[in-house]
């Protein structure tokens, strides 16, 4: 065992590849089972049973869904712009998976830091990659060459840009406190007190913006089944349609992971902080803690979706620009004032 | 390794830039321009300027080009049928190109750019960029923000509907 | 009584006659040179409540023109009824508004009873009132669920509503053998008598319903998103509502005190103490609230009816001969307050076994005629909830 670890330790490329592979597999598995969890929790909220036929407790339902999507006839409407129509679902999914790269999902495991890329501009990387996700939706709306997807595409581009701003504003306070954009440093800063207690307003704005960025109810306007039929994915079917949904859930996971890292102390056990030594089991425990926190936040995403009606487009814009944007600026100002007052002279 | 990556990103950026101006479909142009920005971000990474790379993608690819796409979609621009190039346009563009080349070589000659573009000891972190931006380049930075403010107010005035 | 109305009303920024044909000028976009987008919502659209189509012209997200198109579910109901015996049309009336077959049955039976001069025994009248008010509960509960579903709340309130609706449908099934297509009323009474078990079940439902309503109201009425989406949206003015002969909860939400149960006092409605809730603003939120308040009033009526329910008596007038039923020549218009509004049947008899003329006054269709007036200037998402608040069933609109 130690030899193996040693072998991996001297070949950083191999380490990176192993980490990427493992994280990808976990992400996709988590996505598949989030879909199942969403359906079961929705059923629980709505006094129904939910999917419970495939496998014990319906646990094989994601497999059945996957097989169904893969074997469905791949219908492409005649009026679409073929290249972008095929490209759009992929463009939506890839940024959703890429953003996880800089999130530290554990301390160390056998001396290997549990983060794929420990960038010193970690959060900027997340924002810049996440901001590309909108291209998939906009291109899907445009290339479908149809009216409902078009409206959905326009809505999403305006919505994503507006809420990206609020999201960016909300985390500036965090980085003013931490003094670094590096995610590992952010986690290290929270060893005695979670940032959610120091930046409650920032967390609130981030949470709302995360709902808007992931197109989840009550902000699922690009999709809004009731008025736009399916919005940007109206013209999609089979696996291409499924990719949009995988992307939505992957975005949800990333947003939750980001919240865990920025506001809930990352992989640290609540209020205990860094363990001085890092034996193997300690590393595994930290990974477990991270994923437990992640699942709790995902539960919030799922819960909210089945409890609230949707905002109207103009209300959404008003909320973003007239409430959350000024609130974010005020939060930055307040944090700066407090920091200046506390600073040693 | 770094050399080959440099050539990869450069070729990608130049070809994407070329495709941006030759593509007939405006949406394709936008997508190629985004790819060009990406390649440029890759070049920044090679220079250890991580902050600039991230901001390049975040601001240009993530925000500005989305707005471009938004406008193109809203205007429903058709693909260009044929380009009309007069002799004047051609001559003007050649003149501008030559002038630019001369200027660049002049600057390169006088400033004596280091052969290795990444200055040793400077890691393009957020802190370094911020330090330089808020001390040495304070005035240009603030002037640029004023310019943006003026542009913003102008747009608001132009797009505001007349009250009846 | 009815005077020609010559006033004008402002719709979408221009003066239009309150009554009569209107002209809508479709603008060519705003001064920025934008284009209008014409979209066809329906006939297969998730929120048009059936095969209904709206030709919507949008300026951005704003509706500048809306044309309701219906007739996709036209089944020739009225002509078929003119070629079938009086009784044979009874099952067809179930299929008009398939949410409220009991009230449809009653309205038709009421018209025929008026035509043929049939008296209804007291016990049957009580049964009819109980079933009609249960139907009102079913309809309003489901409508609130659908309306909130149209607002984007993915199914949760709807399924809560359906859970309660099931209990009432179970009673209907035990009573008539069918959950929705009851075919239960007959001329001069009802088909089969209530058993003590049915009465017990109905009492149980009536006892339990207020707690469900309290939960439902707590969940929906004070919700900030619902309030901001519904208030001030799709306003229907009192004048326009009266001029376009809107009836039912739609009319009362606009503040017009008009309930046929109070106006006509048909059946035995004069024996019950209940109030008619009225709205102030005539917006979608008022229409939602009116449904809640009417459910409370229906429960009040149900409690009184169950208390006063006669021990003995006939469930149908034994003098009525359903076979070879030939009412004397004449005409009659029978109307009742169905959950959706004034449901009327107009019949002309020439003394034969077939009606000479059979005509339905469907509340859904007539309430739908002012859809454009309510939607102009609103956002595209509002169109859906305005349509949802009108409460249409396409089986009744198209017939």
How would you describe the overall organization of this protein?
The complex is a heterotrimer of chains A (345), B (164) and C (399). Chain A is built from 14 helices and two strands. With 345 residues, chain A is an all-alpha fold. Chain A has one domain (73-342). The radius of gyration of chain A is 21 Å and the shape is globular. Chain B has a domain at 1-83: NADH-ubiquinone/plastoquinone oxidoreductase chain 6, subunit NuoJ (Four Helix Bundle (Hemerythrin (Met), subunit A)). In chain B, helix 1 packs antiparallel against helix 2 (26-46) and helix 2 (26-46) packs antiparallel against helix 3 (50-75). Chain B is globular and about 45 Å long. Residues 114-118 of chain B have low confidence and may be disordered. Chain C has 399 residues and is of the alpha+beta class. Chain C folds into two domains: 8-69, no CATH class; 77-398, Cytochrome-c3 Hydrogenase, chain B (Orthogonal Bundle), CATH 1.10.645.10. In chain C, strand 1 and strand 2 (14-17) form a beta hairpin. The two termini of chain C are 30 Å apart.
Which helices and strands appear, and what pairs or packs with what?
The complex is a heterotrimer of chains A (345), B (164) and C (399).
Chain A: H1 2-9, H2 12-45, H3 61-71, H4 82-98, E1 108-109, E2 112-113, H5 122-130, H6 133-143, H7 147-178, H8 183-189, H9 195-198, H10 200-213, H11 225-228, H12 238-263, H13 280-305, H14 313-342
Antiparallel strand pairs in A: 1-2
Helix pairs in contact in A: 2-12, 2-13, 3-12, 4-6, 4-12, 6-7, 7-10, 7-14, 10-12, 10-14, 12-13
Chain B: H1 2-22, H2 26-46, H3 50-75, H4 87-111, H5 126-135, H6 138-159
Chain C: E1 8-11, E2 14-17, E3 37-41, E4 53-59, E5 62-69, H1 77-82, H2 90-94, H3 101-116, H4 122-150, H5 156-176, E6 185-186, E7 189-190, H6 196-220, H7 224-230, H8 238-243, H9 249-253, H10 260-263, H11 284-308, E8 330-338, E9 341-349, E10 355-361, H12 363-368, H13 371-375, H14 380-390, H15 394-398
Antiparallel strand pairs in C: 1-2, 3-4, 4-5, 6-7, 8-9, 9-10
